[in-house]
Amino acid sequence: MRTLTIFVAALTLSFVPAALEQENPPSLAQVVALDECDPVTFNAALGPDFCRNVALGAATKLSDLFAKAAAGTPDPGWDFEPDTVNIKKGTTLTVFDQGGEPHTFTEVAQFGGGFLPVLNAPGEETVPECAGGFSNVAVAKTRILQGSQRQITGLSKGEHLFECCIHPWMRVKVEVK
Length: 177
Ligand SMILES: [Cu+2]
Fold this sequence. Notes:
Low-confidence stretches: 6-14
Distance between the termini: 50 Å
Structural class: alpha+beta
Radius of gyration: 22 Å
Strand content: 15-25%
Largest sheet: 4 strands, mixed
Bound molecules: copper (II) ion
C-alpha cells in the first residue's frame, strides 16, 4: 500500500512539469499613449485636473487641438506608439497612458471618427464602437486614465485595429500571428 502511495505521488509529480510546458508563458508587448495637453486651457474648459501633463513647454492649447483636427491635420503629439504591433497569439498587450489626459484603446472594425465630432476629421463619421461616448459602458470600459494602463489579452490570430474614441487619429494596428 505504501509503495502504491509513493508510486502515485511520483506519477503526479511527473505530470506537473508536462502540464506547465504545454503552453509557453505569454510574452508581453507594450503600447504607449501620448499627448501634450496644455493644463491651463484644457482645465479651464473641461474642469480641474482633466489635464495633468508634464509638458515642459511642449503643450498644445485646447483651441489649437480643435483647429488642427478641423483642418484635417490633427496634432501629432496625440499618438499611440508604435503604430503597428506584431505579436504572437497569447501575448499580453499593455497600453500605458503617459499623456496628461484620458484616452480610450478601443477595438474597431474600421478606423473612423470618435464620439466628439469636433475632434473628427472633416466628414468623418463616428465609428459604431465609439458611439455614445462614455455613456456607453462598452466605450467607458476601454478608457485609460492618466498614468494607468489597460491590458489586452486573448486576441485572435489576424489583424486587430484599435483607436482612441476621443482623439480618433490615435490608431494602432495589431497583427497577431
Ligand atoms: Cu485620446
